[in-house]
Specification:
disordered C terminus; about 400 residues; about 30% helix; 9-stranded mixed beta sheet; alpha/beta
Length: about 400
């Protein structure tokens, strides 16, 4: 039986994928949850009973399990966090959804749009609150950027250009992250850094109505950084996407594998009366610090636009802009607002399916050499700035519908 977390209630959290050896669950989720008083990590799941015991001892978590199904049945858990690689999401999510537990699943939601659609349908059927971890849209700077555009700070948006580095997917690989090399494993450059960044882009400017793409694996063989041996790579390390947004603005996004000696993140938005620029030295917008600058009217050059204090939902991170847990903490703060007010500040699984559909369209366009026409995707569910973005990116004359 599904039991929703009530307004004002403390939230007992079970984390699937928490390891004593570190990783994103330990480095991101635990410190993010620790900054908000209403969250308490009560359970964890690791790959074996021994690993679960070691993680429980290290982080002081009382209930330890070696399967997501066992954790899902724990009466001391209200919310389950899925923080394992994408290829393992379905197996971890299904027993959690069946148990009627609310869930926060890291992005990518699934290894494909079809798998994501099935998970979203299961969550709807059970009536669970199911959110997907596209936390770039929770970042204070992205929410401020969205509002500046909505307010017409640069007039009507004419075009946008993003150039970024994948950081991974270069000429060397960490043996602990070899799963990133598999095209079919879901944890690709297209899905992870591109997916997070393009989700922020659509939040601020609107969804793609048409899209064209080139994907390439320019480094089919990479070097294992530990052993020096050669390792095959099947996933793409070049993602070049162009298209038209729902309001008519032209968009261009290029992600390159590895790290650049020059530009690792640059996002420019050009309007009829000004320009906004987001820049940084790391291509993963969901976790890396970026600086917002802008110029309009008679301004000679862009100047920094500090993010107002009210956008920082977790003030502890105001002085820690490089902390990778900062955006996650803001996402967890928004989840509490969802619980307390019934609003939908965070993207749910249906929104995750919308994002997967865009990625699937990009893959198909690259394969066929033809541009794809898109529709908005699953229901909006009231997500603030979820991509409808009417009146932001220009007129709606070019909105298209996929059949």
């Amino acid at each position: 039986m599904t039991k929703r977390i009530g307004p004002g209630q403390d939230v007992r959290v079970g984390v699937v994928g928490l390891s004593a050896g570190g990783g994103w669950a330990a480095d991101g989720h635990l410190p993010a949850l620790a900054t908000l008083d209403r969250y308490r990590v009560t359970a964890l799941c690791a790959s074996s009973a021994e690993s679960a015991a070691a993680a429980g001892d290290r982080y002081g978590v009382p209930h330890r399990f070696s399967s997501a199904a066992e954790l899902a049945r724990c009466d001391e858990v209200d919310l389950v966090v899925i923080a394992v690689q994408a290829a393992k999401h379905r197996a971890a999510l299904l027993p959690v959804i069946e148990a009627g537990k609310d869930v926060y699943c890291e992005w990518p939601l699934a290894v494909s749009g079809a798998e994501g659609s099935a998970l979203a349908a299961a969550a709807r059927e059970r009536g669970v609150r199911a959110n997907v971890g596209l936390q770039a849209r929770s970042a204070p700077v992205i929410r401020y950027l969205r509002d500046l555009i909505r307010e017409g700070w640069i007039g009507e948006v004419v075009s946008t250009t993003m150039v970024a580095s994948g950081m991974a997917w270069g000429n060397r690989t960490d043996p602990r992250a070899n799963y990133l090399l598999d095209r079919d494993g879901g944890s690709t450059m297209l899905a992870i850094p591109f997916g997070h960044a393009v989700d922020a882009l659509t939040m601020c400017l609107g969804e793609f109505s048409t899209v064209g793409a080139v994907l390439a694996n320019r480094r089919p063989i990479v070097q294992d950084s530990a052993s020096g041996t050669s390792v095959p790579k099947t996933t793409d390390d070049q993602v070049a996407v162009h298209g038209v947004l729902a309001g008519g603005a032209v968009a261009s996004v290029h992600f390159r594998g590895g790290r650049s000696r020059s530009t690792n993140f640059h996002w420019e938005i050009n309007g009829t009366d000004g320009d906004l620029i987001l820049s940084g030295n790391h291509g993963h917008l969901q976790l890396a610090p970026v600086t917002l600058t802008g110029a309009r009217g008679s301004d000679a050059e862009p100047v920094e636009l500090p993010v107002p204090a009210e956008y920082h939902l977790v003030p502890q991170f105001c002085d820690r802009p490089g902390d990778p847990a900062a955006n996650l903490a803001n996402a967890y703060a928004l989840l509490l607002e969802n619980i307390d007010t019934g609003t939908a500040q965070l993207p749910d699984f249906d929104h995750g399916v919308r994002r997967h559909r865009l990625l699937d369209a990009i893959v198909e366009s690259a394969h066929t050499g033809q541009r794809r026409v898109l529709r908005d995707g699953p229901r909006d569910n009231g997500h603030r700035g979820e991509g409808s973005a009417d009146g932001i990116a220009g007129s709606t004359a070019n909105r298209s519908v996929d059949n």
